[in-house]
Amino acid sequence: MMQTPLVLTDFVKRAERYFPKKLIISRTSETMIHRITYKEFGQRTRKLSEALTKLGMTKGTKVGSLAWNHHRHLEAYFGVPCAGAILHMINIRLSPEHIVYIINHAEDEILLVDSDIFPLIAQAAPLLKTVKHFVVMQDGTDLPETNLENVHSYEKLLEEASDSYEFPDDLEENMPAGMCYTSATTGFPKGVVYTHRSLVLQSLAIGLADSLGIRESDVAMPVVPMFHVNAWGMPFAAVNFGTTQVLPGPMFNPQLLLDLIEREKVTLTAGVPTIWLGVLNEQERNPRDLSSLRVIVCGGSASPKGLIRAFEEKYKVPFIVGYGMTETTPLVSLSTYTTEMENWSMDDKINIRATQGLTTSLIETRVVNENGEVPWDGQTMGELTVRGPWVADEYYKDDRTEEAFKNGWLYTGDIAVMTPEGYLKITDRTKDLIKSGGEWISSVDLENALMTHEAVFEAAVIAIPDEKWQERPLACVVLKEGSDVSKEELLSYLEGQFAKWWVPDSVVFLKEIPKTSVGKFLKEKLRNEMKEYQL
Amino acid sequence: MMQTPLVLTDFVKRAERYFPKKLIISRTSETMIHRITYKEFGQRTRKLSEALTKLGMTKGTKVGSLAWNHHRHLEAYFGVPCAGAILHMINIRLSPEHIVYIINHAEDEILLVDSDIFPLIAQAAPLLKTVKHFVVMQDGTDLPETNLENVHSYEKLLEEASDSYEFPDDLEENMPAGMCYTSATTGFPKGVVYTHRSLVLQSLAIGLADSLGIRESDVAMPVVPMFHVNAWGMPFAAVNFGTTQVLPGPMFNPQLLLDLIEREKVTLTAGVPTIWLGVLNEQERNPRDLSSLRVIVCGGSASPKGLIRAFEEKYKVPFIVGYGMTETTPLVSLSTYTTEMENWSMDDKINIRATQGLTTSLIETRVVNENGEVPWDGQTMGELTVRGPWVADEYYKDDRTEEAFKNGWLYTGDIAVMTPEGYLKITDRTKDLIKSGGEWISSVDLENALMTHEAVFEAAVIAIPDEKWQERPLACVVLKEGSDVSKEELLSYLEGQFAKWWVPDSVVFLKEIPKTSVGKFLKEKLRNEMKEYQL
């Protein structure tokens, strides 16, 4: 068989060749909507490759991006790796200190920066040890006022580039193509390097009919940021399949997302639960036509069943929960149904949807405890381990590699059970698990149950030190606006659903739950805040 | 990223793990229907690996199969390559001389043979230079009467094998997994070796929503023989996705296929046009419930538009034409629709369906003539060339490699045009093209047009030597039973549809068109038979 490599270049060429008229709809500010065709995308991507090459980009150069979801970022998704360089997608929600660290650690030489993020970077510039050029992504060729040298206008660079750039044809599939850093429990973020092979294979995986089935006829809107784990791979796959893309730009809100869904007839969209909670709220107040939607994908943290039920029952939109992490490119599993579930009750189906789902083709998962793989009983907890061709085997130049990568498996730090059907169900992070009297209590299960209560907006359950039981659960609850419920009512609401010793010892009501840069509960902070709490 | 290899072993493990209760429905004779689960399939496959290992199979051993579509053949599809050996699927419709040649050429050491094919092989046995063991595939453990030594019962071997066989975990993705031989215009068949990587990648490709979208909820019936180009990859993909399989066994007829479709609620089936012509005929006479069918896949030779129209319009079954060859594993393209065709007329849509379709992900195609790639005008003919990770780069130990593999591309020997939408349309084999007065005439286009005439069952158009024009077309026509039409009527039927110089000079009526072992017109034979014909 031919040793044709699996490289992203083929995706651009396929889009240019077979889908030149299909559209990328991109929002770069609150008012600017750009519509470019895949033909134009191809030309602009080639120009970007040429322009960056002129700035000194060569094979293996790291190019950082600090940008929202828009067509220029998409051009960078291909223009950088297809020239043999590496796109380092920088999470702009990290602290400035961490952003400086990862740019230096990755040794980025060029930064592609959205105009609204540029001031932050300009300020940090003296600390950046390897950056030689700043390219400002904005409409038009104006440049922001700055004392920095080597600041370029993205559009000006493209204007000056020729049309004739050809991607190098000697790329190998195991060459690095992208990088993301993921927050660590302690210390600086850890880097993961994606190869062309891993990104191509994952793109095929999300095109499978039994997965997201992303296809030419889709209108795909990744709400998950393009600076976060490849926007779950959607932009890569969409280019290969010639899918219409809607990139919602900076500072979007639920209203804007719903407007885009209705106006652009979005069929497939993906984001974290917080996004969909907000969208659901807005939709209840001011309903839009959601009939174009074929699937909402949700991941990043546990999805409340009430959220799933609302979309599935009321709006008839399949709401699929997925699991993955920066280390896994990220697709590991999706809560799609199998035929055995066809005649299940709605309740049972929603229960399946709320799991992290069935492991995708080419990926292996095992939930393991000290006895090996846990039984598929929906109860026995263990740590989720993952293996496969788009799973990292190390952190980039980082000693913490050995904590997570053992015996050819990635140890995810997530605690999970296996349902009898073989679906993964995350019950906790290793570090968030509550260990009470030698037994494990899942904070996520308790949170999900609390969030089904009509008065509860959000709930986080954390461990509080306890002399007798080592740890006991404490529920931290944010109520819905205008709602009211007592501590006792909430606890008795849980009593029917869990073993007595699982029920939290108390409830505290908060205005908000602290969250990470990507919207996950920041339980470490919560535990610190509650350190002094007396049960 | 982890260097997890793309190997077929993962498919078996996935089916065993996630789809143990799903069924393989297999017909081994006209009366015997076997239903085994994927759990049993996994056990039997592992036992087969062990049993063949005991017979001397080791890494790289070639194991030939001479078998119809049934569960034992499916077990061999995995039990041989997952043990590191190579399954040589032997086309039982080749001449005995060619069968002997390819067994010797491949150096098969073990043959897995259906009981009804065994007498043929027993007779040829003295000519087989490398075969050490014959394993007879049939229900029960009886053996046919024979003087041959080393004849084993498949079921007996499995009975004696243990349950504990583990597939080797050191397989590499570029290791050979399978072999098929393809007929050559002259000389002996040419061998193609498939690797684990090529078979895994093609399996993903046919699982894509934009391709066949084969999925867990499908009931897939490959009618295309498992001895012919991996049964177009369906059995491999079906195991990975946990798809229910219906394997129709030996000596099936249209009636049996329709019975299986209706009874087993087949959703996806694949075969050559001759099969679907027969099925359509039978359905018209004795209609069955076809409502379970989601798609019929047709390939191997051009599909008459009348056939496509009947299934699409009358029976509401999408009828997708595909293109591929032994050298391409085989999937190259499929005549699926894109969004731009949504509002097209039925006629225009049928015209698209009748093309060989849009090139699939990861595969590159180019139709080239002496000026390079042909324009996408639906008219300019050139030779189709193909490149990609499941395209062969050589014939196995064969000097004819250099005729077909040039500059990294496979030269298919098929003449094609490109439609304005980028769909491939095969107009001829290089050797069947009619060259008249310096211009090319497509025999396939003329045949397709003739076959839309209500009196015509089959038509082949061939070149006849001509003093003035070098060659002129002659139509060879088989009429439908009880139909009648004159030569003049048929020619005037064509006159409205083609340039005057394309219209054949005459028509001869035949009882049948000679065909190859896989149902394609044997035009070389026809040309020889017509050599003396005077226009």
TrEMBL record, chains A, B:
Pfam families recorded for this chain? AMP-binding, AMP-binding_C
Q: Does the keyword Nucleotide-binding apply?
A: no
SUPFAM superfamilies, A to Z: Acetyl-CoA synthetase-like (SSF56801)
**Superkingdom, natural source:** Bacteria
Q: Where is the AMP-binding enzyme C-terminal domain?
A: 446-520
Q: Where is the AMP-dependent synthetase/ligase domain?
A: 21-396
Keyword RNA-binding among record annotations:
no
Keywords in UniProt for this one? Fatty acid metabolism, Ligase, Lipid metabolism
Per the record, the similarity remark reads:
Belongs to the ATP-dependent AMP-binding enzyme family.
* Name of the featured protein: Long-chain fatty acid--CoA ligase
- Give the source species: Viridibacillus soli
At the highest ranks, the source species' classification is:
Bacteria, Bacillati, Bacillota, Bacilli, Bacillales
